Amino acid sequence: MQIYLPIAEVSVNAFLLLGLGGMVGILSGMFGVGGGFLMTPLLFFIGIPPAVAVATEANQIVASSFSGVLAHFRRKTVDLKMGTVLLVGGLTGAALGVVVFNYLKSLGQVDLLVKLCYVVFLGIIGSLMFVESVNAIRKARGAAGGAPAKRRQRTWVHALPMKMRFRTSGLYISVIPPLIVGVLVGILSAIMGVGGGFIMVPAMIYLLGMPTKVVVGTSLFQIIFVTGFTTMLHATTNYTVDVVLAVLLLVGGVIGAQIGTRIGVKMKAEQLRVLLAMMVLVVCGKLALDLLLQPSELYSLGAAGGH
């Protein structure tokens, strides 16, 4: 069933969009990531212009994250205090990111920037996550019946000033690192149309030392507000939010997030991370190929920007 998207100016199969939304919703529930880092490139692949994909995807992430967060609230695995600190940084970063996005859009370079950002970030994050997850699985196998796990080491993060107690996470650390993580994620949210969970989740575990069980819910809590704010800025300054596309992705995403949260509980954290890392690397490879290979119709590049 073909449906015309007014802002994107293309016709797409409605069931394909519902399916993509559902798939990304499942990932959102399983991994605590908004899923935009996979959905936005998938939208490029089916012919949605990058500027529209970025702005509209931020909208879909709000819904699937909200759906996922409700499940985590019921389990009491959301650190609201930490989420609020990350949020302050995130809103600041999102405002900065939209300014950069609008400037590049006026220069006509935004499509290339968005795709290059994806290739670089997905390549780095996917590789690091894959190596770390494989090591974690090896350790888990080796540690069965072995020595007890060591206590977490004190790092430079613990030496910083402006300390605050985060009871749900069992932490007493400076608010500076969470604020910086929030700002970076906000900038990425605006430029790449992502929730930023694929950076935030590893940062919360390895940099801030948060327990894995509260990371997913806290990440989703912050993502809801930052991506909501980003969508509003894009809608009012760029006019690139396609409501028809957003609604179809939303419906799929909300259903998928509930399924994903249930699957996530049944699987081991290391197995989940290996799966996520492999998906990230596959999407990165496809995007890099698309940028490197000559398009079949050279005119399609010019036509995209012209009238």
Automatic annotation (TrEMBL):
Membrane topology note: Multi-pass membrane protein
Bilayer-spanning residue ranges: 12-39, 85-104, 110-131, 171-199, 205-227, 239-260, 272-293
Major subcellular location class: membrane
Domain of life: Bacteria
Keywords: Cell membrane, Membrane, Transmembrane, Transmembrane helix
Matches recorded under InterPro entries: TM_pro_TauE-like, TSUP/Inactive_protease-like
Listed Pfam families: TauE
Cell membrane in keyword set: yes
Family from the record: Belongs to the 4-toluene sulfonate uptake permease (TSUP) (TC 2.A.102) family.
Name assigned to this protein: Probable membrane transporter protein
Organism: Falsiruegeria mediterranea M17
